[in-house]
């Protein structure tokens, strides 16, 4: 029995060392949008992938492949999945040079019901001119959650974002 036990110990240590060596920690503060996943309600064309809006490049020309873009549709949305709980205090949005945001809402929370629009509102009725950036405050105390959703309610709308930065702090949450 003892020889088998001795052979197994190095394997356990090797697995632990591999997991420890490749694991990356989540950001605790600062721009939280760099190492996460983005999705959106639809894809307008091959250049408009949702993750283009978190690539660190705030170039506003949508033909250069650094902006996200939904199709023209009813109440389009664009969403970040932080994978961890954060209290979001500010969101910086840069729109594409040919399409601004008009009447947009930012929701933050833990629920994906109705594509995240059932979550708490961080800010509402945001309008940003084409090719411009705006820093938006999430009320006085920030909003806590795993998901951040930007939506433009109404028919015949499109969302085109060239960069989204979310600022907040890691805030563990134990009841999920």
UniProtKB/TrEMBL annotation:
A single GO BP: regulation of cellular defense response
Record-linked SMART domains: FTP
Role of this protein: Acts as a defensive agent. Recognizes blood group fucosylated oligosaccharides including A, B, H and Lewis B-type antigens. Does not recognize Lewis A antigen and has low affinity for monovalent haptens.
Spans traversing the lipid bilayer: none
Identification of the protein by name: Fucolectin tachylectin-4 pentraxin-1 domain-containing protein
Keyword NADP appears in the UniProt entry: no
This protein's UniProt keywords: Calcium, Disulfide bond, Lectin, Metal-binding, Signal
GO MF: fucose binding; metal ion binding
Fucolectin tachylectin-4 pentraxin-1 domain location: 29-174
Subunit-level organization: Homotrimer.
Domain of life according to the entry: Eukaryota
Similarity comment: Belongs to the fucolectin family.
Source species of the chain: Chiloscyllium punctatum (Brownbanded bambooshark)
InterPro entries: BG_Antigen-Binding_Lectin (IPR051941), FTP1 (IPR006585), Galactose-bd-like_sf (IPR008979)
Signal peptide: 1-25
């Amino acid at each position: 029995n003892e020889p088998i036990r001795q052979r197994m110990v190095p394997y356990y240590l090797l697995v632990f060392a591999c997991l420890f060596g490749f694991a990356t920690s989540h950001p605790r503060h600062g721009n939280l949008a760099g190492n996460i996943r983005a999705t959106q309600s639809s894809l307008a064309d091959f250049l408009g992938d949702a993750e283009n809006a978190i690539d660190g490049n705030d170039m506003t020309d949508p033909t250069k492949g650094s902006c996200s873009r939904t199709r023209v549709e009813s109440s389009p949305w664009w969403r970040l999945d932080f994978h961890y709980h954060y209290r979001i205090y500010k969101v910086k949005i840069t729109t594409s040079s040919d399409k601004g945001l008009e009447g947009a809402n930012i929701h933050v929370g833990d629920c994906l019901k109705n594509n995240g629009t059932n979550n708490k509102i961080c800010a509402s009725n945001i309008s940003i001119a084409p090719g411009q950036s705006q820093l938006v405050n999430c009320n006085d105390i920030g909003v806590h959650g795993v998901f951040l959703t930007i939506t433009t309610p109404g028919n015949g709308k499109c969302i085109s974002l060239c960069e989204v930065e979310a600022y907040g702090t890691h805030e563990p949450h134990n009841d999920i």
